[in-house]
Write a structure and sequence with these properties.
This protein is of the alpha/beta class. The protein is 41% helix and 12% strand. It has two domains: 3-90, no CATH class; 101-371, Alpha/Beta hydrolase fold, catalytic domain (Rossmann fold). Helix 7 (212-227) crosses helix 8 (246-256).
Protein backbone atom coordinates (compact mmCIF):
# COMPACT_ATOMS: atom_id res chain seq x y z
CA UNK A 1 0.00 0.00 0.00
CA UNK A 2 1.29 3.46 -0.90
CA UNK A 3 0.00 6.91 0.04
CA UNK A 4 -0.46 7.60 -3.67
CA UNK A 5 -3.15 4.95 -3.87
CA UNK A 6 -5.19 6.74 -1.22
CA UNK A 7 -5.08 10.17 -2.80
CA UNK A 8 -8.30 9.68 -4.77
CA UNK A 9 -10.47 8.51 -1.85
CA UNK A 10 -8.92 11.26 0.27
CA UNK A 11 -9.88 13.84 -2.37
CA UNK A 12 -13.43 12.45 -2.49
CA UNK A 13 -13.80 12.80 1.27
CA UNK A 14 -12.31 16.29 1.34
CA UNK A 15 -14.72 17.46 -1.37
CA UNK A 16 -17.60 15.93 0.57
CA UNK A 17 -16.65 17.68 3.80
CA UNK A 18 -15.54 21.00 2.31
CA UNK A 19 -17.21 21.36 -1.10
CA UNK A 20 -16.01 23.93 -3.62
CA UNK A 21 -18.53 26.75 -4.06
CA UNK A 22 -16.92 28.98 -6.72
CA UNK A 23 -16.50 29.11 -9.64
CA UNK A 24 -19.70 27.28 -10.50
CA UNK A 25 -18.25 24.81 -13.06
CA UNK A 26 -15.62 23.74 -10.54
CA UNK A 27 -18.28 23.51 -7.82
CA UNK A 28 -20.35 21.18 -10.00
CA UNK A 29 -17.31 19.00 -10.70
CA UNK A 30 -16.51 18.87 -6.99
CA UNK A 31 -20.09 17.95 -6.15
CA UNK A 32 -20.03 15.04 -8.59
CA UNK A 33 -16.67 13.74 -7.33
CA UNK A 34 -17.66 14.01 -3.68
CA UNK A 35 -21.17 12.61 -4.04
CA UNK A 36 -20.11 9.02 -3.39
CA UNK A 37 -18.70 9.91 0.02
CA UNK A 38 -21.63 12.17 0.93
CA UNK A 39 -24.30 9.61 0.13
CA UNK A 40 -22.55 6.23 0.52
CA UNK A 41 -19.86 6.70 3.19
CA UNK A 42 -20.21 3.13 4.48
CA UNK A 43 -19.70 1.63 1.04
CA UNK A 44 -16.70 3.83 0.32
CA UNK A 45 -15.19 3.00 3.69
CA UNK A 46 -15.58 -0.74 3.12
CA UNK A 47 -14.04 -0.42 -0.34
CA UNK A 48 -11.05 1.55 0.91
CA UNK A 49 -10.38 -0.80 3.82
CA UNK A 50 -10.80 -3.84 1.59
CA UNK A 51 -8.34 -2.42 -0.91
CA UNK A 52 -5.66 -1.55 1.63
CA UNK A 53 -5.90 -4.41 4.15
CA UNK A 54 -3.72 -6.85 2.15
CA UNK A 55 -0.75 -4.48 2.44
CA UNK A 56 -0.80 -4.83 6.22
CA UNK A 57 -0.95 -8.61 6.09
CA UNK A 58 2.35 -9.24 4.32
CA UNK A 59 4.34 -8.60 7.51
CA UNK A 60 6.69 -6.08 5.95
CA UNK A 61 5.59 -2.62 7.13
CA UNK A 62 7.50 0.25 5.57
CA UNK A 63 7.52 3.97 6.29
CA UNK A 64 5.25 4.46 3.28
CA UNK A 65 2.83 1.97 4.84
CA UNK A 66 2.77 3.99 8.04
CA UNK A 67 2.03 7.18 6.13
CA UNK A 68 -0.71 5.37 4.23
CA UNK A 69 -2.12 4.05 7.51
CA UNK A 70 -2.35 7.59 8.82
CA UNK A 71 -4.10 8.70 5.63
CA UNK A 72 -6.49 5.76 5.92
CA UNK A 73 -7.32 6.72 9.50
CA UNK A 74 -8.11 10.29 8.41
CA UNK A 75 -10.24 9.05 5.51
CA UNK A 76 -12.24 6.77 7.80
CA UNK A 77 -12.65 9.58 10.34
CA UNK A 78 -14.00 11.84 7.59
CA UNK A 79 -16.40 9.14 6.46
CA UNK A 80 -17.52 8.75 10.07
CA UNK A 81 -18.37 12.45 10.17
CA UNK A 82 -20.36 12.11 6.95
CA UNK A 83 -22.26 9.14 8.37
CA UNK A 84 -23.01 11.08 11.55
CA UNK A 85 -24.48 13.86 9.40
CA UNK A 86 -26.77 11.31 7.76
CA UNK A 87 -27.98 9.98 11.09
CA UNK A 88 -28.67 13.53 12.35
CA UNK A 89 -31.21 14.14 9.57
CA UNK A 90 -34.04 12.31 11.37
CA UNK A 91 -33.98 14.70 14.33
CA UNK A 92 -33.91 17.73 12.01
CA UNK A 93 -36.89 16.42 10.05
CA UNK A 94 -38.88 15.68 13.20
CA UNK A 95 -38.19 19.22 14.44
CA UNK A 96 -39.38 20.65 11.11
CA UNK A 97 -42.66 18.74 11.34
CA UNK A 98 -43.17 19.78 14.95
CA UNK A 99 -42.47 23.43 14.15
CA UNK A 100 -45.06 23.29 11.36
CA UNK A 101 -47.63 21.74 13.69
CA UNK A 102 -47.61 18.37 11.93
CA UNK A 103 -47.89 15.68 14.58
CA UNK A 104 -46.77 12.12 14.01
CA UNK A 105 -47.09 9.02 16.14
CA UNK A 106 -43.89 7.57 14.71
CA UNK A 107 -41.13 10.20 14.57
CA UNK A 108 -38.35 9.48 12.09
CA UNK A 109 -35.75 9.67 14.87
CA UNK A 110 -37.48 6.91 16.86
CA UNK A 111 -37.27 4.35 14.05
CA UNK A 112 -34.31 2.07 13.54
CA UNK A 113 -32.11 2.47 10.51
CA UNK A 114 -32.46 -0.62 8.26
CA UNK A 115 -28.75 -1.21 7.97
CA UNK A 116 -29.03 -4.36 5.84
CA UNK A 117 -31.07 -2.40 3.30
CA UNK A 118 -28.62 0.50 3.44
CA UNK A 119 -25.65 -1.78 2.81
CA UNK A 120 -27.03 -4.24 0.28
CA UNK A 121 -29.67 -2.23 -1.58
CA UNK A 122 -28.27 1.30 -1.87
CA UNK A 123 -30.30 1.93 -5.04
CA UNK A 124 -33.96 1.18 -4.20
CA UNK A 125 -35.54 -1.70 -6.08
CA UNK A 126 -39.25 -1.93 -6.71
CA UNK A 127 -40.87 -4.20 -4.09
CA UNK A 128 -42.79 -7.22 -5.31
CA UNK A 129 -45.90 -5.83 -3.67
CA UNK A 130 -45.78 -2.77 -5.95
CA UNK A 131 -47.11 -2.93 -9.50
CA UNK A 132 -45.70 -0.68 -12.24
CA UNK A 133 -47.50 0.66 -15.29
CA UNK A 134 -46.08 2.92 -18.00
CA UNK A 135 -48.60 5.40 -19.40
CA UNK A 136 -48.97 8.65 -21.36
CA UNK A 137 -50.88 11.65 -20.11
CA UNK A 138 -50.75 13.79 -23.26
CA UNK A 139 -50.13 13.79 -27.01
CA UNK A 140 -46.30 14.00 -26.91
CA UNK A 141 -44.89 10.46 -26.62
CA UNK A 142 -41.54 11.74 -25.32
CA UNK A 143 -42.57 14.52 -22.94
CA UNK A 144 -45.88 13.19 -21.63
CA UNK A 145 -44.68 9.97 -20.04
CA UNK A 146 -45.38 8.67 -16.56
CA UNK A 147 -44.76 5.58 -14.49
CA UNK A 148 -47.58 4.63 -12.13
CA UNK A 149 -46.75 2.61 -9.01
CA UNK A 150 -49.59 1.09 -6.98
CA UNK A 151 -49.84 -1.60 -4.36
CA UNK A 152 -50.87 -5.00 -5.66
CA UNK A 153 -54.29 -5.89 -4.29
CA UNK A 154 -54.21 -8.94 -2.06
CA UNK A 155 -57.68 -9.77 -3.26
CA UNK A 156 -60.46 -7.68 -4.71
CA UNK A 157 -60.25 -3.91 -4.61
CA UNK A 158 -57.45 -1.97 -3.00
CA UNK A 159 -58.64 1.65 -2.69
CA UNK A 160 -56.16 4.43 -3.39
CA UNK A 161 -55.75 6.93 -0.54
CA UNK A 162 -54.18 9.71 -2.58
CA UNK A 163 -51.80 10.51 -5.42
CA UNK A 164 -48.14 11.43 -5.07
CA UNK A 165 -46.61 12.90 -8.23
CA UNK A 166 -42.83 13.24 -8.44
CA UNK A 167 -41.15 15.50 -11.02
CA UNK A 168 -37.51 14.81 -11.87
CA UNK A 169 -34.66 17.29 -11.95
CA UNK A 170 -32.12 17.94 -14.68
CA UNK A 171 -32.00 21.75 -15.12
CA UNK A 172 -35.19 21.57 -17.26
CA UNK A 173 -33.15 20.06 -20.11
CA UNK A 174 -32.52 16.45 -19.12
CA UNK A 175 -33.80 13.68 -16.91
CA UNK A 176 -36.65 11.20 -16.97
CA UNK A 177 -39.14 9.35 -14.79
CA UNK A 178 -38.22 6.59 -12.37
CA UNK A 179 -34.68 7.74 -11.54
CA UNK A 180 -35.00 9.92 -8.44
CA UNK A 181 -36.96 9.56 -5.19
CA UNK A 182 -37.66 5.91 -5.89
CA UNK A 183 -37.72 5.11 -2.17
CA UNK A 184 -40.35 7.82 -1.66
CA UNK A 185 -42.50 6.53 -4.53
CA UNK A 186 -42.31 2.91 -3.42
CA UNK A 187 -43.05 3.83 0.20
CA UNK A 188 -46.19 5.71 -0.79
CA UNK A 189 -47.32 2.91 -3.09
CA UNK A 190 -46.94 0.40 -0.25
CA UNK A 191 -49.01 2.68 1.99
CA UNK A 192 -51.90 2.74 -0.45
CA UNK A 193 -51.10 5.78 -2.56
CA UNK A 194 -50.90 5.96 -6.33
CA UNK A 195 -47.30 7.08 -6.86
CA UNK A 196 -46.49 8.69 -10.20
CA UNK A 197 -43.08 9.58 -11.62
CA UNK A 198 -43.53 11.86 -14.63
CA UNK A 199 -41.53 13.80 -17.15
CA UNK A 200 -42.30 17.00 -19.03
CA UNK A 201 -41.07 19.02 -22.01
CA UNK A 202 -37.34 19.69 -21.86
CA UNK A 203 -35.51 22.60 -23.49
CA UNK A 204 -31.93 23.86 -24.00
CA UNK A 205 -32.53 26.58 -21.38
CA UNK A 206 -34.95 26.80 -18.43
CA UNK A 207 -36.59 29.93 -19.81
CA UNK A 208 -36.82 28.39 -23.27
CA UNK A 209 -39.11 25.69 -21.90
CA UNK A 210 -41.32 28.02 -19.90
CA UNK A 211 -44.28 27.86 -19.49
CA UNK A 212 -44.65 24.63 -21.47
CA UNK A 213 -43.17 22.41 -18.76
CA UNK A 214 -45.50 23.96 -16.16
CA UNK A 215 -48.43 23.44 -18.51
CA UNK A 216 -47.40 19.80 -18.75
CA UNK A 217 -47.70 19.36 -14.99
CA UNK A 218 -51.14 20.97 -15.06
CA UNK A 219 -52.08 18.67 -17.94
CA UNK A 220 -50.98 15.71 -15.85
CA UNK A 221 -53.23 16.82 -12.98
CA UNK A 222 -56.17 17.14 -15.38
CA UNK A 223 -55.38 13.65 -16.73
CA UNK A 224 -55.39 12.21 -13.22
CA UNK A 225 -58.80 13.74 -12.54
CA UNK A 226 -60.26 12.48 -15.82
CA UNK A 227 -58.53 9.16 -16.37
CA UNK A 228 -57.46 8.23 -12.86
CA UNK A 229 -60.60 6.14 -12.20
CA UNK A 230 -59.57 3.88 -15.09
CA UNK A 231 -56.50 2.99 -13.00
CA UNK A 232 -58.18 2.75 -9.61
CA UNK A 233 -57.62 6.40 -8.62
CA UNK A 234 -60.74 8.17 -7.32
CA UNK A 235 -61.54 11.35 -9.24
CA UNK A 236 -61.46 13.33 -5.98
CA UNK A 237 -58.29 11.80 -4.55
CA UNK A 238 -55.95 14.33 -2.91
CA UNK A 239 -52.90 15.06 -5.06
CA UNK A 240 -49.48 15.97 -3.69
CA UNK A 241 -46.80 17.11 -6.12
CA UNK A 242 -43.15 16.61 -5.17
CA UNK A 243 -40.07 17.50 -7.15
CA UNK A 244 -36.30 17.31 -7.08
CA UNK A 245 -34.14 20.30 -8.13
CA UNK A 246 -35.85 21.69 -11.26
CA UNK A 247 -38.81 19.46 -10.46
CA UNK A 248 -39.12 21.22 -7.10
CA UNK A 249 -39.46 24.54 -8.94
CA UNK A 250 -42.28 23.02 -10.97
CA UNK A 251 -43.93 21.63 -7.83
CA UNK A 252 -43.86 25.05 -6.18
CA UNK A 253 -45.14 26.81 -9.30
CA UNK A 254 -47.94 24.27 -9.67
CA UNK A 255 -48.99 24.77 -6.06
CA UNK A 256 -48.95 28.57 -6.33
CA UNK A 257 -50.79 28.88 -9.67
CA UNK A 258 -53.74 26.52 -9.17
CA UNK A 259 -56.45 27.25 -11.73
CA UNK A 260 -54.43 29.97 -13.47
CA UNK A 261 -55.71 29.92 -17.09
CA UNK A 262 -52.35 31.18 -18.41
CA UNK A 263 -50.88 27.79 -17.62
CA UNK A 264 -53.88 25.66 -18.61
CA UNK A 265 -54.41 26.34 -22.32
CA UNK A 266 -57.28 24.30 -23.65
CA UNK A 267 -58.21 22.95 -20.21
CA UNK A 268 -58.76 26.19 -18.32
CA UNK A 269 -61.56 24.78 -16.20
CA UNK A 270 -59.65 21.70 -15.00
CA UNK A 271 -59.17 21.38 -11.24
CA UNK A 272 -55.42 21.76 -10.66
CA UNK A 273 -55.51 22.40 -6.94
CA UNK A 274 -53.10 20.43 -4.78
CA UNK A 275 -53.48 18.93 -1.34
CA UNK A 276 -49.76 19.48 -0.70
CA UNK A 277 -46.38 20.21 -2.26
CA UNK A 278 -42.87 18.92 -1.56
CA UNK A 279 -39.58 20.42 -2.71
CA UNK A 280 -36.27 18.55 -2.50
CA UNK A 281 -33.02 20.50 -3.03
CA UNK A 282 -34.96 22.84 -5.31
CA UNK A 283 -34.22 25.95 -7.28
CA UNK A 284 -36.96 28.53 -6.64
CA UNK A 285 -35.86 31.62 -8.55
CA UNK A 286 -36.70 33.13 -11.91
CA UNK A 287 -36.01 31.16 -15.07
CA UNK A 288 -34.84 34.19 -17.04
CA UNK A 289 -35.07 37.96 -17.33
CA UNK A 290 -37.95 37.99 -19.79
CA UNK A 291 -40.13 35.75 -17.63
CA UNK A 292 -38.99 36.89 -14.20
CA UNK A 293 -42.43 38.21 -13.23
CA UNK A 294 -44.18 34.90 -13.88
CA UNK A 295 -41.51 32.16 -13.62
CA UNK A 296 -40.37 33.08 -10.09
CA UNK A 297 -42.47 31.24 -7.47
CA UNK A 298 -42.29 34.08 -4.94
CA UNK A 299 -43.91 36.44 -7.48
CA UNK A 300 -47.14 34.46 -7.02
CA UNK A 301 -49.36 35.01 -3.96
CA UNK A 302 -48.98 32.50 -1.16
CA UNK A 303 -52.48 32.97 0.27
CA UNK A 304 -53.85 29.98 -1.65
CA UNK A 305 -50.84 27.74 -1.17
CA UNK A 306 -51.42 24.18 0.09
CA UNK A 307 -49.31 22.67 2.89
CA UNK A 308 -45.62 22.61 1.92
CA UNK A 309 -42.60 20.59 2.98
CA UNK A 310 -39.28 22.02 1.75
CA UNK A 311 -36.08 20.00 2.29
CA UNK A 312 -32.57 21.18 1.40
CA UNK A 313 -28.99 20.23 2.19
CA UNK A 314 -26.67 22.59 4.06
CA UNK A 315 -23.80 21.85 1.65
CA UNK A 316 -25.70 22.08 -1.62
CA UNK A 317 -23.37 23.77 -4.10
CA UNK A 318 -25.61 23.39 -7.16
CA UNK A 319 -28.74 25.08 -5.81
CA UNK A 320 -27.74 26.86 -2.58
CA UNK A 321 -30.25 26.69 0.25
CA UNK A 322 -30.74 30.47 0.21
CA UNK A 323 -33.39 29.89 -2.46
CA UNK A 324 -35.31 27.50 -0.21
CA UNK A 325 -35.13 29.97 2.67
CA UNK A 326 -36.52 32.69 0.39
CA UNK A 327 -39.45 30.49 -0.69
CA UNK A 328 -40.22 29.45 2.89
CA UNK A 329 -40.29 33.09 4.03
CA UNK A 330 -42.72 33.88 1.21
CA UNK A 331 -44.97 30.95 2.06
CA UNK A 332 -45.00 31.59 5.79
CA UNK A 333 -45.75 35.25 5.15
CA UNK A 334 -49.01 34.50 3.35
CA UNK A 335 -50.13 30.89 3.52
CA UNK A 336 -52.62 29.80 6.18
CA UNK A 337 -51.40 26.21 5.82
CA UNK A 338 -48.40 24.49 7.45
CA UNK A 339 -44.96 25.09 5.93
CA UNK A 340 -42.36 22.59 7.12
CA UNK A 341 -38.73 23.33 6.37
CA UNK A 342 -35.69 21.14 7.05
CA UNK A 343 -32.02 21.83 6.35
CA UNK A 344 -30.25 18.48 6.29
CA UNK A 345 -26.80 18.60 7.92
CA UNK A 346 -24.01 17.95 5.43
CA UNK A 347 -26.34 17.02 2.56
CA UNK A 348 -25.38 17.92 -0.99
CA UNK A 349 -27.46 18.25 -4.15
CA UNK A 350 -29.12 15.08 -5.43
CA UNK A 351 -29.53 13.16 -2.16
CA UNK A 352 -32.65 11.17 -3.16
CA UNK A 353 -31.53 8.44 -5.61
CA UNK A 354 -29.98 6.36 -2.80
CA UNK A 355 -31.44 4.45 0.14
CA UNK A 356 -29.10 6.16 2.59
CA UNK A 357 -29.97 6.59 6.28
CA UNK A 358 -30.54 10.28 5.52
CA UNK A 359 -32.95 9.78 2.65
CA UNK A 360 -34.82 6.96 4.37
CA UNK A 361 -35.41 9.42 7.23
CA UNK A 362 -36.66 11.95 4.65
CA UNK A 363 -39.04 9.32 3.27
CA UNK A 364 -40.43 8.61 6.74
CA UNK A 365 -40.90 12.32 7.46
CA UNK A 366 -42.58 12.97 4.11
CA UNK A 367 -44.84 10.00 4.77
CA UNK A 368 -45.94 11.61 8.02
CA UNK A 369 -46.55 14.86 6.15
CA UNK A 370 -48.66 13.31 3.39
CA UNK A 371 -50.55 10.95 5.72
CA UNK A 372 -52.42 13.88 7.26
CA UNK A 373 -53.52 14.99 3.79
CA UNK A 374 -55.23 11.68 2.94
CA UNK A 375 -58.86 10.92 3.84
CA UNK A 376 -59.36 9.12 7.11
CA UNK A 377 -55.98 10.15 8.52
Amino acid sequence: MTPLGLLLPALVVVLALAPIRRPFPLAVAGWIVGLLAVELPLHLGIAVVGGTAPAFLDGDVTRADLVAAGMLALILAGLGVLLAHQLAAARVLDAALEEAGVTTTRPASSQRTPWLRVLFQPFPLRPRAVRRERLRYGPDPAAHRLILYVRRAAGGSDPVRGVLVHLHGGHFRSGGPGRESRALLFDHALRGWAAISATYHLAPTPEGGFPRHLQDVKRLLAWIREHGPEHGIPADAPIVVAGSSAGAHLAAMTALTAGDPRFQPGFEHADTRLAGAIGLYGYYGRLGLETRDVSDPVRHPAEGAPPFFVVHGTRDTYTPLTGSRRLVRHLRGGSPNPVAYAELPGAQHGFDPFASPRYLAVVRALGAFTDRLAPGS
